[in-house]
Amino acid sequence: MVLLSLSPVLLWFLSGIVFFALELLLPGLIVFFFGIGAWCAALAVYLLPISLSTQLLVFLAASLLALLLLRSTVKKIFLGRTLEVDAMEHSLPEDATGEVIEDILPPAAGKVKFGGSFWQATSEEPVTKGTVVRIVEKKNLTVKVAPLKTNGEH
């Protein structure tokens, strides 16, 4: 067989590449650290003439150590952090208005048509269907509204 004639250094190195490729297919960022362990074993075999059982021990120890020490850091780098940036939240005009399409009866939410979409809406006071409201705040997929006061109201 061709695999048996390859050097242990090359076998461990290629095993590491296989583990890295498998990480692309499997979720969880665990298999990646077996790739690091395989490369550590390849380096150990390259530097020292060690037995197969010692190679396996180096592989397991390096994999577990890398997993325990580096997983959170590597996860942040490769998977990224969730950054909630909402363009509408930052560009909410002061005079934004909407129309209530489902009664808002606090503490229960209702629905408002605003900006061409339908939004969950909350209010500090009851607001009936058909009322034009001012959008006070937008948080995630919910808007906080207040009834639009006309000039004669206080």
Automatic annotation (TrEMBL):
UniProt KW keywords: Membrane, Transmembrane, Transmembrane helix
Keyword field contains Acyltransferase: no
GO cellular component: plasma membrane
Endpoints of the signal sequence: none
Keyword Transmembrane tagged: yes
Source organism superkingdom: Bacteria
Gene3D superfamilies reported for this sequence: Nucleic acid-binding proteins
All residue ranges annotated as the NfeD-like C-terminal domain in the record: 96-147
A Pfam family the protein falls into: NfeD
Localization of this protein: Membrane
Membrane topology label: Multi-pass membrane protein
Transmembrane segments: 6-22, 29-50, 56-74
Name listed for the protein in its UniProt record: NfeD-like C-terminal domain-containing protein
Taxonomic source organism: Desulfobulbus propionicus (strain ATCC 33891 / DSM 2032 / VKM B-1956 / 1pr3)
